[in-house]
Structures are given as C-alpha cells and as structure tokens.
Amino acid sequence: MNVEPPAEAVGSGAVALPEITVEWPQTLAPTLRDSVLDAHSLARDDLVGALPGLWRAVDEALEVAGPGSLVAESIRHDAYEGWQVAALPRYDVEGRVRARGRGAGAPHTAPQLRDRRALVRALVDAVAERPSLDVRDALHMLDVFAGAFPPGLDAICRRLLGHDLRHGVAAGLAPLHEALDRRTTEGVSTRCYRESGVGSRKAKGDPATDNEDTSGALAGPSGVLRCAVFDGVTGDGDGSGGTAARAALEQVVRRWRLEEAADAPRGAGDPRDRLPGDEPQGAFRPGELIGELDAAVGRATAEGSAAAVLATVRPDGTASVVSVGDAEAWLIRPLRVPAGEIPYAAWKLTPAHTGFAERLRVTADAEGEESQLVSFLGGGAARWAHRVFEVGPGDLLLLASDGATEPERDRWFGTVLAELTAQLDASGRPTAPALAAALVQRAEALGGWDNATALVCAVGEAKD
C-alpha cells in the first residue's frame, strides 16, 4: 500500500537544521586575499618567501583542531602579528571540540584533501584578479597566469595536492622552499641544446614550410647566454608563420650581437667600461625589444605572426625571460629529498596570452580559445610578460613552443618535466640534450598535432 505523506511534511519544512553561531575570542586578521590586495600588508612577490611561516601555523592548527578544519577563509595575515589560521574544528552536541581518534595511521598534522584544497584556493585568491570558484578553477589560473603570479607558486600548490605530507605541511614543503630560495654565489656557466620536429599530423609534404618553429642561441666572450624560440602562426597553412618566425630570429640575432659587443670584456681604462649598476650598453627594455621584433615581423609578412619566448642568462646567475603569445619557459631544479621521491621540481615562468586566458581573468566559466592568441609578433604584441629570476648549477631552463608542452589528461606539465628529467638523469645520458629530444618525441607520441621545439639551457658551475 502506498501512503502519501502529509502536505505539510513535503519540502523544506521536513528538514530541521540548527542555526550555528561561531564566535572568535581573538581578533581575526584580514583574509590572505584582503591582506595582499587591499591592506597591502604582504606584497604579492613576497608571498612565496613568507609561506614557511604559514605552514608552521597550519600544522599547529591541525594538531589542535584536527584535519578537515580549514576553509579558504581560514588563512589570514596581519602586517604586525603575521600569520593566523582560523580553524573550524568539529564540535559535539554539548559545544565542545570533538575528540579526535588516534589510530595507527598518519600523524594528525597530515592535512585532509579538504585542507589541501582550502590552502590552494587561499594562495591563488591572494594573487589572482578574482577569487577562485573551486580548486579546479584555481589550478586553471595557476597554469595560465604562472608567469604573472609569484614564481614557484604553481609548484607549491601542486605539491600541496600531490605530496602525502604525512609529517606535516612544513616538513613536506621544506625541500621545495629550499630549492626556491637557493642562490648561487660562485657564478654559473651555460650550454644550450635544441631539438625540433614537424609533427606527423602537421606535415604537409613540404620540408621548407612544414616546420614553422625556429630557435637560436648566442654565447660570446662576455659569458652571457642569449636564446629564443619563435613559434610561427599561419591561418591557412601558406607558410607565412615560418616567415614570421625567421624574421623575428634574424632581428633578435642582430640585437644580440650588438649587446654582446657592448658586454664583451674591455681593456683596462676603456672609456666604454660600465660602472657597477649600469645597464649593459645597447640593452633594450622588454617592451622595446618586443616592439622591435613585432616591427620586423610586420615588414616580413602581412599574414604570418609568431609567438615568442626569449631568455638571457648572465655569468652571475641572473636570468630573465620575455614572452608573448603561448610559447613557454620553465625552470627545472634539483630537490634535496629522501630516496624514493622525485629529485626535481619544475615551475612555469611565463603566462599565456590567449583568448582562454583573457576570459579566465573574469570568469571561471571560460571555455575554448586555448590556442587563439590575443598577443603576438606581427601587428598584435599588445601584451607581453617579463620575469627576472636566479639560476644555479644543476638548473635546466626550458624554452619551448606550445607543441612541445602539450598537456596530458590529469597530469600537470611541471610533474611531467620533473619525472622525465629524473628518468633521463638516472639513465646516465646527458640530461639537457636528452630532455630536449624526449620532449619532441613525447609530442609525437601524443599525436604529432603541431610543430614541437624544445631548447634546453643547462646551467653549470662557473668556469675558471
């Protein structure tokens, strides 16, 4: 027999929910986003360096309140008091903090997935133009705006989600922070390796126009390495993208030679010698350089255009990248980790200038347009990115066209880079040239849909 429920029992009246009020005995600091964007008590570029203090506070909060007690708004910061974690522990019916069971598993400072996601969202929200909708949205912004966000933030968030952290957040992230803070004091030397492939599905049977990527490097007596990758873009397959890429390379090589002549060692007392702190003679600011390359492409072709990523590495370990479009730069650095862990980490140095990126700035519902450039060489270099950083012995600096950084489903490319570098290192092969070749082979294995070019700069100890 079917019994219809009374009308008054149907709907929200059938569910009784309590009203819960949370009162904080302490004064709450601003949320991390408010602290960075509104109160300016913590600068965006200082965020990564300040995070070890947050991890200690998180471990203490999880020890007191238990795992699963964090939300994005729990992470707070004050210019005078520093970090504050407003944990939300579970309560029993009498209003007391519910006792946590002590099983034989991981220590209580190990965060649950809820805690990890809350930390990632809090960090991304602190530097993004808009708050993230969820952790998936936060990861999208990390991938697209990596070069605009503080360097290494993408690697930190990925380690938060992917590492077991069984000994606590501070211990689990310590190797990565040590790597991020590593500085060279003795100077560096560099060597550059390049590999490029057409892609089987991209090939049209004309070797002269099939590969529209090009790249180059210049190292001279000054010890400065200059290198670049240009990814030609053609609308109808007429090869004009290759024309654009080659024109950009020819122009930048001319500029490199002028800069090298200005940087080359002089005799004692030479009036052209620079004083400490002076900029290299002939050096261009990033915007001027991009404008010069944009004009060179415009003179060479009316149809073709190119994405670009350029890098400079100086003997003192100071490096910089300039990019426009969707060509990418990554830094791969050795980690000092226990046996069994991947001994490398990678983080992205450049953002993407695409239609998807522009939409993602304002909405989490951005879809498609991943490869549609909104900034490029050849009449449209309205947006460019510049990043200065430091390198040290053992680092690998990767410049690549988007075909060589093809994403895999559910795998972050930084993880791919770290694992691939570790495998090549363990094989005994020269890591830098093997990595360049492996990335091009990987692009073909993923379908060969695009030209793939990888230029890898190996950073070593300074030469005598």
How would the blueprint of this fold be written?
Elements: H1 32-37, H2 47-65, E1 75-78, E2 82-85, H3 113-127, H4 135-144, H5 153-162, H6 169-181, E3 188-197, H7 207-210, E4 213-219, E5 225-233, H8 240-263, H9 286-300, E6 305-313, E7 318-324, E8 328-334, E9 344-348, H10 355-360, E10 385-390, E11 396-400, H11 413-427, H12 431-445, E12 452-461
Antiparallel strand pairs: 1-2, 3-12, 4-5, 5-6, 6-7, 7-10, 8-9, 8-11, 11-12
Helix pairs in contact: 2-6, 3-4, 3-5, 5-6, 8-9, 11-12
Structure description:
This protein is α+β, with helices and mostly antiparallel strands. It is built from 12 helices and 12 strands. The strands form 3 sheets. The protein has a 5-stranded antiparallel beta sheet. Strands 4-5-6-7-10 form a 5-stranded antiparallel beta sheet, covered by helices on one side. The longest helix is centred in the middle third of the chain and has 24 residues, at 240-263. The chain is globular and about 80 Å long. Residues 102-106 and 274-283 have low confidence and may be disordered.
